[in-house]
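Notebook p. 47: complex prediction with nicotinamide-adenine-dinucleotide.
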Amino acid sequence: MEIYDHPTFRMACQQFDLVADHLQIPHDERDRLKLPKRALTVALPIHRDDGSTQVLFGYRVQHFLTLGPTKGGLRFHPDVQLGEVAALAMWMSWKCALTGLPYGGAKGGVACDPTTMSKTELERLTRRYTQEMIPFIGPQVDVMAPDLGTNEQVMAWMMDTYSVHAGHTVPSIVTGKPVGLGGSLGRREATGRGVAYLVNRATDTIGLDIGKSTAVVQGYGNVGSIAALSLARYGAKVIAVSDVRGGIYNENGLDLFALERHVASRRTVLGFPEAQPISNEQLLLLPCDILVPAALERQITQANAGQIKCRILAEAANGPTTPEADAILNQRPEVFVIPDVLCNAGGVIVSYFEWVQDLQSFFWGETEIVDKLFRLLETAFTQVLAASRKQKISMRLAALSLGVKRVQEAKRIRGLFP
Ligand code: NAD
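Predicted complex, structure tokens below:
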């Protein structure tokens, strides 16, 4: 479908085609499963602080409507395009199905650079985007959450804009809100915490002592920083991290608490005293036990897949590994891949808990939330590992196949309409 043409959409389609062949899905069912159900593109005029007016472009793609509302993050990043958002929506469908959540996949984005915008500009943009989305979203229609470049504050503005329109407070319109506004305890930490839980399970699986392991994290944002801290709690030594501006490396391990203070004041990992600078490209090739790409899509490619030197590749980001890189990794059994749809599923799982709590107006304690999160991740990990071993297929093919199969069955049972 030409309107979605984009390297990341092509990548998601290539992955789907491999799964469809593996599952022997009839050809006349494939487009229905693959192509997003609907998409909205909006022009967003906003006032900049200097008094000028700028029009930005925003998108929302809802991939699969059969099982309930759609669910997925909202991204603010300069490279956002409709096709990228469509690919991310498709992956959300497989992820929700894999983990057994009653959602279809969705994703949204605005092409903008939030790092160069003031807080008031971000607020005007967020409110304008939400306003334009009102006919397209709702607690039983489509529920957004934070992603790259968005955070709790952005979710609070969205919730407020929607609530003003509705005439009453509607916390369940977004997840990842501040806890004081109906957010869930443990949501901010959920994705990174889930990544570390699954890495720990993977170390058990391959017989690696996590207490003696080293870890490298690309993308020290919400997901990457919590993943690093959580891995350190399991005993791993985090030796390198990075952000969009570059990375830092200390073979003896980084002091993550000092780093947190540094990032809070400088808004970058660069310049951290007890480490040497390293580029994002070099960082991915560092010898380590655990490599966590937690930034953008298409970071592990044909060019570097043969050279990465980790035992576990934990895909915290969405789509960090291209299908060409995957083919190379499939020939490298010494690298255990935790595929993105499984690895970063902790985020949407606790988003689901937040939505349920908001709908019931009954809130749970953090211990209960973390316990329920780990249970769902455990079930998904065990199922994926079992399918991978039984069918002698990669962890990615196993995870995607479980997700796609559940979506296919739901569509078959309901009929053509949804
Ligand atoms: P974030 O904006 O909080 O952090 C992103 C980090 O990546 C920042 O440190 C940024 O500087 C860095 N970065 C950006 N471009 C980079 C580049 N080219 N090279 C290296 N670093 C770069 O975003 P986040 O919420 O942590 O999301 C990170 C990834 O995790 C995304 O792929 C997102 O889709 C995925 N994800 C997020 C969640 C969630 O709950 N937030 C859930 C599932 C998946």
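Notes: The two ends are 19 Å apart (CA to CA). The pocket of nicotinamide-adenine-dinucleotide is lined by residues 146-149, 191, 218-224, 242-244, 280, 294-296, 316-318, 344, 347 (CB under 6 Å).
Next step: compare against the earlier run before touching the bench.
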